[in-house]
Amino acid sequence: MGGYILKRLVSAIPVLLGITVIVFLIMALIPGDPATAILGSYATPENVAKLNADLGLDKPLVQQYFIWLGNMLTGDFGTSFALNRPVLDEVMERFGATLILAGTAFVLCSLLGVAAGVVSAANQYGAADKAITFTVLLGISIPSFFLGMMMILIFSVQLRWFPVSGMWPIYGARDVWALLDHLILPASALAVVATGVIARLSRSAMLEVLRQDFIRTARAKGVRERGVIWRHALRAAMVSIIPVLGIQAGFVLSGAVYIEIVFQWPGIGRMLVDAILKRDILLVQGGVVVVAACYVMFNIAVDVGQALLDPRIKT
Amino acid sequence: MKFLTLLARNRLALGGGVVMALVVLLALVTPILPLADPDVTDTARRFLPPFSEGALLGTDHLGRDLLSRLLWGTRLSLAVGFAAAISAATIGAAIGIVAGYFGGWLDNVVMRGVDMLMAFPYILLALAIVAALGPGLMNALIAVAAVNVPFFARNIRGITVGLAHREFVDAARLSGLSDTRIILSEVLPNVVPVIVIAMSTTVGWMILETAGLSFLGLGSQPPQADLGSMLGEARAALISHPHTSIVPGAMILIVVMSINLLGDGVRDALDPRLKSGALSRPRAATLVERKGPVPASEGRGLLEVQDLRTEFHVGPRTYRAVGGVSLHVEQGECLGIIGESGSGKSVTALSVMGLVASPPGVITGGAVRVEGEDMIGTPYRRLRDLRGRKVAYIFQDPLATLHPLYRVGDQLVEAIRAHRPIGRAEGRAKAIELLEAVRIPNAAKRISDYPHELSGGMRQRIGIAMALANDPDVIIADEPTTALDVTVQAQILSLLDDLRRSRGLAIVFITHDFGVVAQLCDRVAVMYAGRIVEEGPTASILETPCHPYTARLMACVPELGEGRRRLEAIPGLPPAVDKLPPGCAFADRCAKARAECRQGEIALSRAGPRAVRCLYPETPVMEAAQ
Ligand code: SF4
Fold first, then answer.
1. Residues 163-192 of A with CB under 8 A from B
2. Any idea which fold A92-279 has?
3. What is d(CA A9, CA A5) in angstroms, rounded to the nearest whole number?
4. Residue A149 pLDDT > 60, yes or no?
5. Which GO BP terms apply (chain A) (predicted)?
6. What is the ipTM of this complex?
7. Whole-angstrom Cα Rg for chain A
8. Where are the domains of chain A?
9. Mean pLDDT, range A46-55, rounded to an integer
10. Domain residue extents for chain B
11. Does 1.10.3720.10 match the CATH number of domain B2-26+64-274?
12. Omega into A243 within 30° of 0, i.e. cis?
């Protein structure tokens, strides 16, 4: 298993490099004088000169890339001109908040989605199946930002169950309970879409497995139907559900951008949107690279989980 | 045309299609409708509620007419969403076709790039593109299209790779057509349905995404507004004037939902594998719809099957897989059921414990008695209790029939635990004991193996051990040796024979191989087209077969073990069990057939231990019985 993990980590290196190349190339697309464009409204002569020196913007493209990459590898992502603060510090702080939000949503949608899919498959064409199928359809059709706004209207404004926005109370203790209180609404809003997708795919994965011969064997042994569904079928279906969870993690992370805006959550998505609107390009670059790298690592973890779950995978 | 009728049959898709058509129509006629100018501000009329005079849906924070803005916004959102979907599909399909068709290093480079792009959470890529190009509706469109290109490229490439090596493409190549011509005339028509499916399932998503970017302020810029930016602007007044948010939000929901409904319908209609009903899950026990009266017990044998009828209901067709089969087996006896594939022998066996997949299987008549108790009418709980405890099964392919992800020891313990609680240590001891009983060497180690780590013969021994786990009275073995090679087959047969003698098991042995029957079975029943055509003691039948079919079966019997030769040696095919001819089902293949054979039901005539269903038997049954 150790060897397998190592192998996957090594195979991630070209992907990570590829990500930096793509981000770099996109930024190179910027028309006009790059330093002025990157700095946007912060393009004072001093700043332009500083950035040109930092990134070697007068040098050939390939050389620029390696300078930029080398800087990042030593932890120097440059300075945000809008915030006047090292990019890495800002990114790390914001990314932490996003991880809390997206992580909670991911756990929620994985549990609920798989459970709904299993129940739906086990009662195919029954009332529960139809109800779940319809809810799933609603879930994948509603824009998460609209859903978030409606949740604020209903649960915060009308019912007053949860605070309207933010991550912490303005006054009072910053403890787990305060965090949970602020987290429940945005995390649920964020989880809805992915729950729908996961439920759909879990349902079809389960239906696929339930037709297999080993399910008949379990029934022939006299295993109770609950055991057939949750122990035999789900265990086998997980092999195809896990990769879906990996993909959905990317969608949850993406959806977090909207939810952070709606709920004023101080995460990296909101930071990126602000940075784009202020044309704070270095901050965008840094944020994108860090989040993408973490996502790649997360997917390796998913692969390893998959290998642990399926003894047939050669490790 | 067929596609359209299929689509129309799906009511949800039809509903989605109608709503979608209405929205598109509204968007198209918006410029000629008598609407207020969507961009004229009137601060005196800010935040009018819906149904106000002169403003059906009210006004927004600048006093602009919401209805007008909604329709213009919808128009814009639809245009941008569809434009993004079409560009992504076109560019992605082009990349996918080129990579898949030419293959080689080009394919490699392109697919690496695609993998790279897909390693991003899509929004990061979209944000990076918008960051580089600057906010604006056109740039948002480019970003959304760009992040979806890899998805299309990968899908289409997969299909193209499959096509590029097909005969018709090779033929076109040999006839000297240029690559461009081949792609346009041979490849493209075949990938179009895939492109359509991919588009129909992603266009809703792309409308959502462009609306999302606008919502973030990165898409359409004021005063121009699509649905997303309307929602974004309304957010500030969410709490005080929620209607300004609800109006555009609900519209996005309606649009995307109807597209998704329609998209699902398109996918189902174009992709036959996903058509509804194709993926029905089998129920816990076979459906029972007995029409006639339940036959009274005749008290024969440990297991008694009486006039069993099992059908498969597939759409409008009914396949009579088992058409009135009666059997019985005594303690310590081995009964063989022999027949070609499709003769109904396996379905008969599976019907005993309600294991025929349902849908489509339905038991429509007869009874199955275990110690006199009818299994067909018994409630599921009782049936489950008897499965594995009274009657156990051994199946054909042990790789498919063992759970691939559990250790074999755990699967054995589970079989026991289904019927009585058993502790860890005791379970382990019992599992080892069972493996030793089926002569698996090194049992203590083998229990922690996974099925894929064992050889075929070992796996089948596990299957047998699992059947023995609860000391059943009857074992039903459904072609347990067919998937194995000759020497292993002989070992498994002698193992079963020993177990039967030492444990007094009743065995029902399903096979297509007379050699196996000769070695193992006391009695044999020959099945053809869902019915028993001959029955009797093995030795007697082997000596003087009565039914022409039995005689033919025996004539092409291979030596024991060379089961590969199967029964195809008989000319002709068994009749399809959904249109059985009147009279003898074997008539079309029978050399002795006469007109009377096709006229009516032919009864099973008995004499002593022998029985045959034939008007002109090879040997008269009375004679054979002596
Ligand atoms: S009944 Fe007639 S057709 Fe059928 S097997 Fe006998 S002889 Fe042949």
1. 164
2. MetI-like fold (1.10.3720)
3. 6
4. yes
5. transmembrane transport
6. 0.85
7. 23
8. 92-279
9. 74
10. 2-26+64-274, 543-626
11. yes
12. no
Residues 6+ apart with CB under 8 A from B386: A222, B353, B370, B375, B378
pLDDT reported for residue B277: 45
Q: Do B525 and B335 contact (CB within 8 A), yes or no? A: yes
pLDDT of residue A111: 95
Give the number of the atom of ligand 1 that is nearest the alpha carbon of residue B598. 3
**CB neighbours (10 Å) of residue B33?**
11
Which residues have a Cβ under 8 Å from the Cβ of B24 and sit 6 or more positions away? B78
| Angle (deg, nearest 10), helices A87-122 and A281-309 | 40
Paired tokens of B457: 């013969």
Number of Cβ within 10 Å of residue B316's Cβ equals 6
pLDDT, tens digit, 9 for 90 and up, residues B206-258: 898 899 899 988 888 888 888 888 888 888 878 888 888 888 888 999 999 99
Amino acid at B430: K
Whether A219 and chain B come into contact, CB under 8 Å, resolves to yes
Closest by CA position to B301, among listed B260, B333, B275: B333
Question: In percent, how much of chain A has pLDDT > 90?
Answer: 18
- pLDDT grade for B536, boundaries at 50, 70 and 90: very high
Q: State the Cα–Cα distance between residues A259 and A47, nearest whole angstrom.
A: 34
* Share of residues in chain A with pLDDT > 70 (%): 96
Residues in chain B: 626
Record: contact B253-A143, CB cut-off 8 A: yes
Select from B527, B586, B594, B605 the residue to mutate for testing ligand 1; criterion: most ligand atoms less than 8 Å from CB.
B586
Q: How many Å lie between the centroid of ligand 1 and the Cα of residue B597?
A: 6
Q: How far is the CA of B319 from the centre of ligand 1 (A)?
A: 22
Strand partners, B393: B476
